[in-house]
Specification:
The chain is α+β, with helices and mostly antiparallel strands. Helices cover about 35% and strands about 15% of the residues. The chain has seven helices and six strands; from the N terminus they run H-H-H-H-H-H-E-E-E-H-E-E-E. Strands 1-2-3 form a three-stranded antiparallel β-sheet, with no helix packed on it. A three-stranded antiparallel β-sheet has the order 4-5-6, with helices on one face. A hairpin with a 6-residue loop joins strand 5 and strand 6. The radius of gyration is 19 Å and the shape is elongated.
């Protein structure tokens, strides 16, 4: 039984000040937007009502990152993977899912990354032992796959097909809540 099944009394869209706590409001957000792709404020208010939107603090800055990655919430993962793989951040930013593979070396699992670097004579190639530590690159990679899955699985109106294979996807509040990734300079953002 999912937590959605436990929401018995979603208030009317026209009800005012009906959410007694942040947890109830977040459950309602999850109920109204199960795909976790959020439209503009005006459309949120049309679908879920003014009460829900106004009871949540700074909706797009504080609530959306609880459900899907944003530019701010994705940065720590970029830094952690750059440190673990001793790689240039721009190479990590441009990483695609198929660049990472779990391999077996002498009976030990390793996460192997073969990146791309535009101006280098050789592309970066690194591997890291797979452990169950929370900051292990394999754990981070699995978390990122889950964290970005809703954005990756969205239709073309949500996520452009040419960026669905990127490791780092995020919802950008500065571009009317469209999904973005990083382009080949590693510094600029691209959006659909």
């Amino acid at each position: 039984v999912s937590h959605r099944d436990k929401i018995f009394n979603i208030p009317s869209r026209k009800a005012k000040e009906v959410y007694s706590d942040m947890g109830s409001a977040l459950s309602a957000v999850d109920y109204y937007f199960p795909d976790h792709v959020f439209p503009s404020a005006k459309i949120i208010q049309q679908i879920a009502g003014t009460s829900l939107y106004t009871c949540l603090p700074s909706f797009h800055r504080k609530v959306v990152p609880l459900f899907v990655p944003t530019t701010r919430s994705i940065v720590p993962f970029v830094l952690l993977l750059s440190i673990h793989f001793a790689a240039n951040t721009s190479s990590i930013l441009m990483a695609e899912l198929d660049e990472f593979q779990e391999i077996d070396v002498l009976g030990k699992k390793r996460l192997h990354w073969r990146g791309k670097k535009n101006r280098a004579t050789r592309s970066p190639e690194r591997s890291h032992t797979v452990t169950d530590e929370i900051d292990n690159p394999a754990m981070l990679l699995n978390f990122l796959k889950d964290y970005t899955n809703k954005l990756r699985m969205g239709g073309a109106e949500v996520t452009a097909p040419h960026i669905k294979s990127r490791l780092f996807l995020y919802l950008s509040e500065n571009t009317k809540m469209r999904v973005g990734s990083y382009h080949n300079s590693g510094l600029s953002l691209i959006h659909i």
